[in-house]
Amino acid sequence: MDRRWTDVLSTAVAPATWGTTYLVTSELLPPGRPLWSGVLRALPAGLLLLALTRHRPHGTWWWRSVVLGALNIGAFFPLLFLAAYRLPGGTAAVLGAVQPLLVAGLTVLVLHERPRAVAAAVVAPLGVTLVVLRPDAGLDAIGVAAGLAGTAAMATGLVLTRRWGRPDGVSTLTVTGWQLAAGGLMVVPLALAVEGRPPAPDVPALAGYAWLTLVGTALAYALWFRGAARLPVTQVSLLGALSPLTAAVLGWLALGQSFTAWQLAGFVLAVGATALGQRPPRADNRPRSAVLRRLRRPVNARRPLPDATQPRPVAGQCLVSPDR
């Protein structure tokens, strides 16, 4: 398999894993503790990766890790949970699905690059909307603002991850650990102020936290940041549509939820747009354009006419001067 498609499939594991968060949270974790759930997802995963890699930031990467940790974790998690509390799940998922459009704009402003798969970035959120949005979904101004702000924070973090890359000789796991630790620490004071002391988990909750920490955070974010470093960021953000789609499939399989015909059509539309958006960009087409320009020229313009004032060579005669 082409290495690029291997990168796409491994990156897609991250949002597919994030799609299990709703099921795990609703079935295994203690209710009403979303901020502590975010802390217990990010901070232990970050500390684990720091212990495995044993590499601290240096130079500019101290503040870069703080900025990226704030955008991808410290700001994103509280805003995500605030939106989830104030809005129906489908509405919050639709707000998150517009991330590819934000990434496309930031690609131009920050990376000074032409965004890829813009059409897919428009179609995929429409498909997600059909899958998750209900007719009776209500809108709350604070919830909508929080959902958009959280989506913008993660989109900015994704683009800056591509812009800054990582230090020479430092692995993706190391940089992921820096961000998770920094972002998790930022949420701790807010969790203490809003929710009080951390919850005392039972055995099912421990299993849920273990899944979210090891697989849904440490592994998923490492694959996500790895993909952001190797693939066009607009195409990486398109893969985020797999998160609400995975949640919808798990709700159908595990919770007995049903799909309407419109939802099935939206599912096919979103998956198709996401897959088509991963096509590799066309190779440099300048030779092809040059051939087309040549073919479009008039026949008489393709080759200059011989100059009648110049002598025409005779067979066996050389017109090149001897001194050349």
From TrEMBL:
Residues 302-324 are annotated as: Disordered. Keywords: Membrane, Transmembrane, Transmembrane helix. Pfam families: EamA. The keyword Membrane applies. Residues 10-132, 142-276 form the EamA domain. The chain crosses the membrane at residues 65-85, 91-111, 118-135, 141-161, 173-194, 206-224, 236-255, 261-278. It is found in: Membrane. It is a multi-pass membrane protein. Its main location: membrane. GO terms for cellular component: membrane. The keyword Secreted does not apply. PANTHER family: EAMA DOMAIN-CONTAINING PROTEIN, INNER MEMBRANE TRANSPORTER. Belongs to the EamA transporter family. This is EamA family transporter.
